[in-house]
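Progress note, sequence design subtask.
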């Protein structure tokens, strides 16, 4: 798993955990991940993957309308 790459759009996910910041300080530690976001991840055979904040916000805005 490449923790620096969003597995939906291929962009930088700006992960603090990958950058070595203390656990709990990354944006993703405080983010709600809707179940639908995981349906958008291509099957990689791994349950762990990284998703960028832009993709999460895009999904939230498309489902709130």
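Output:
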């Amino acid at each position: 798993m490449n923790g620096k790459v969003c597995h939906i759009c291929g962009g930088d996910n700006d992960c603090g955990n990958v950058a070595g910041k203390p656990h709990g300080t990354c944006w993703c530690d405080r983010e709600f991940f809707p179940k639908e976001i995981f349906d958008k991840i291509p099957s990689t055979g791994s349950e762990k993957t990284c998703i960028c904040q832009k993709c999460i916000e895009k999904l939230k805005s498309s489902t709130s309308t």
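The chain has a mean pLDDT of 81. Work on this subtask will continue into the next period as scheduled.
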